[in-house]
Every structure is written in C-alpha cells, then in structure tokens.
Amino acid sequence: MAEGARICLGQIGAPHGVRGEVRLRSFTSDPQAIAEYGSLQTEDGRSVEIKSLRPAKDHFVATLAGIADRDAAERLTNVKLYVPRERLPQLQTGDEFYHADLVGLAAFDCAGKALGTVTAVHNFGAGDLIEVRAEDGKTELIAFNETNVPTVDIGAGRIVIEPSPIAGEDKT
DSSP letters along 14-39, please? Predict the structure, then answer.
C-alpha cells in the first residue's frame, strides 16, 4: 500500500432528527473507536470531526462539528470517512488485517490455480466477505474466515481460498 494512503473508517448515513445528527456506520474493530481518531477526511478532502457518538440499534448516532440542522446532515448522506494510514495502530498479530490490505491480492486455490483478484471486502452484519473477481469478470462473495481463506500472505500479495467456489468445479 502506498505511503500516505487513506483507510476508510466509516460511512455517514441518513440524518437523525432535525438538529443535524447523523447515523454513522463504523468499520473499526472496536466500533466506538472511530471517535478517537480525531479529524477524519471525506473522499474530496473535507475535514469531519465527531463531537459525540451514541449507540443506536445497528449504527451510531453522531453529532459532527459544524453540522447544526437536518439540511446540512442530509448533504453528508453516504459520505465515507477516511484517516491517513499512518494514524492507524500497528497490527499485533499475523492474523489481523486491514480491509484495504486485502483488496488487490491475487486469489488462488489450494492447488495453486489462479482464481482472480480480491476487489472488495464487505460486511453486511454477519461477518466479513471478500469479493473476488475472476479473469472472465464474474465475481464471487466468499466468507472471510480461516476455513474458506486458510492463507493470507500480504507480503507475497496472495490469498488461498478453499474450497474454491470460483474454480468451476462440477456442482451436479
């Protein structure tokens, strides 16, 4: 990953109420830690500061500096929040990864057959999924766990997927 790269820590959702609060989804391992990173940046470089954060059903409700009404909050709907890579803590173990480090890795099956490239990491609430795009353009979502992805080698730029849903095995 390039030095100075930004990592997405969260995404602003719809407004909450009329006083400028917003719904906020956090992508940090400790979801409340998003408020501890200080000033965050949007994709277009604007600075966003979380003044307060409280848990809600499946998200947080956040008060952002300078956002005082519903109209201002609405303009931030779906805006992603980033932090420079240098501000993230060092990973402590070899089985921890930043999602951004997984995107771009080559995917292989256990026999060494190339399956494609990791294009995204998603989490819809039931755990992380990696999206792998094959050479033919087809994509597959694969549960990102030790059973399905037994090997992740960031240094070598590759992961191993088993069993392979992409390898084209006969499913009859």
Answer: EEETTTTEEEEEE-SSSGGGGGGG-S
